[in-house]
Design brief:
single chain, 335 residues, alpha/beta, Rossmann fold, three-stranded mixed β-sheet, 40% helix, globular
């Protein structure tokens, strides 16, 4: 039976991947950062036989031993903040070094199949591409461009490092799954930054929407793609955008408002002049300004053709997120 080593197993996306793996009969060894996360996963999957390894993306200890006996590396672990860090290297180094650390361990364990969670952030900001032209998997974000934030740079550099690694180790078949902003139902009270955005949208914390767009996808589709890629020959050596659609933040709010009229979603977009003033005092607002006048749209045509399915509509993903935030009164925390 195929055994999958799943890194970052307590993350929002990874929990859905774990459920998909278990439902399809895979054996799983999950990497976690603490015993608290182990108990969390055991509570979610009480009837499953799970193996665990406690590992740190920034440290070599334990990686080589942890991956022994596994057939597939599914690397999802990577920092994902809601706000821009003071030092970009706080995101870049763990993302790049952690990816290479996991892949070196996979090579030493004799593994030949790797599925990597990347991001549309590694695709949609190619500096020499017209700003209002949609992107696809042939595009690469230019990390050194001034419009590129720390998270976008970290995902781009980590994915490039993975492709460079397999270029030197051609016996390893790599697939990268590149989601947009990931919405949908969380499996527990810990969820990622995308759902924190939904929480802000529905509670009035964003009174006016910045005039920017965002590519979005449902977490259930992201999980399906990861697991389906394991044995899909056409997925080997390829990167795939996981994208259901691209909409403005105001349109996100309108979708949610049409579902529940009582929500305090933004009713209009913020004028650019106001954002420029706010950007003088806020690094996060300044980062938002870099996305004004460009589209972050990424085509999902390649994924739909290769995997043979239609993505869950963005509105359904947003409603599932808002339902969790409202009904269960979950408190958002970055994974």
């Amino acid at each position: 039976m195929t055994k999958v080593f799943l890194t970052g197993a307590s993350g929002f996306i990874a929990k859905h991947i774990l459920r998909e793996l278990l439902e399809q009969g895979y054996q799983v060894r999950a990497s976690i950062r603490s015993d608290k996360r182990k108990a969390e996963l055991q509570g979610l999957f009480p009837d499953a036989t799970l193996e665990f390894a406690t590992l740190d993306l920034t440290k070599d200890e334990g990686w080589q031993v942890a991956l022994q006996g596994c057939d597939v590396l599914m690397h999802t672990a990577s920092p994902f903040p809601l706000t821009e860090p003071k030092d970009p290297q706080d995101l870049i180094r763990p993302a790049v070094d952690g990816t290479l650390r996991a892949m070196r361990a996979a090579k030493q364990a004799g593994m030949t199949r790797v599925i990597l969670t990347s991001s549309c952030a590694a695709i949609y900001k190619q500096s020499d591409k017209p700003k209002m032209h949609p992107s696809d998997e042939t595009n690469w974000t230019t990390p050194e461009d001034r419009s590129v934030g720390s998270y976008e740079a970290s995902k781009t550099l980590a994915e490039k490092a993975a492709w460079d690694f397999v270029a030197e180790n051609p016996n390893i078949a790599l697939t990268t799954i590149n989601p947009g902003a990931v919405f949908g139902p969380p499996m527990d009270a810990r969820y990622g930054a995308s759902l924190e955005l939904v929480e802000q949208l529905v509670t009035g914390k964003i009174p006016m929407a910045p005039p920017v767009d965002m590519v979005a996808v449902d977490v259930r589709d992201v999980a399906r793609m990861h697991v389906a890629a394991i044995n899909l020959e056409a997925a080997k050596g390829e990167r795939f955008a996981a994208a259901s659609g691209t909409y403005s933040l105001l349109e996100f709010g309108n979708m949610l408002k049409s579902w529940d009229a009582s929500l305090k979603t933004p009713g209009r977009e913020a004028p650019v002049w106001l954002l420029r003033i706010m950007g003088l005092f806020s690094k996060d607002v300044k980062g938002v300004l870099e996305n004004v006048g460009r589209t972050l749209a990424v085509s999902s045509a390649k994924a739909e053709k290769t995997f043979g399915f239609t993505f869950i509509p963005v509105k359904d993903a947003l409603v599932a997120s808002a339902t969790a935030v409202q009904t269960h009164k979950l408190k958002g925390t970055s994974k």
